[in-house]
Write a structure and sequence with these properties.
Elements lengths: L2 E6 L4 E6 L8 H13 L4 E4 L4 E4 L15 E4 L4 E4 L2
Antiparallel strand pairs: 1-2, 3-4, 5-6
């Protein structure tokens, strides 16, 4: 992919390294989560302080709401900008 700088030893050493495809976020991670959920579909998930349980395959998919039109603060909370 590209080069990144890794810092080590309390910030005293630096080295460059090649980056690899990250799989801990984004679409690749969603696919990984879906595969793991299918594998462990018959396992139970306990919730509500141990008072409720359901199978993992019955857990609904979550959606991420859009951030369009929301404001983000900056500069110790004194400034803001609108996301588009």
């Amino acid at each position: 992919m590209g080069k990144i700088i890794k810092v080590g030893g309390r910030g005293t050493t630096r080295r460059t390294a090649d980056t690899e495809d990250e799989n801990w976020s984004g679409e690749k991670f969603k696919e990984y989560q879906k595969q793991m959920k299918e594998k462990a579909g018959d396992e139970y998930v306990i919730s509500g302080r141990g008072t409720g349980k359901r199978k993992l395959k019955d857990t609904p998919e979550t959606t991420r709401p859009s951030a369009k039109g929301r404001y983000v603060s900056s500069g110790r909370g004194t400034g803001r900008r609108k996301l588009e």
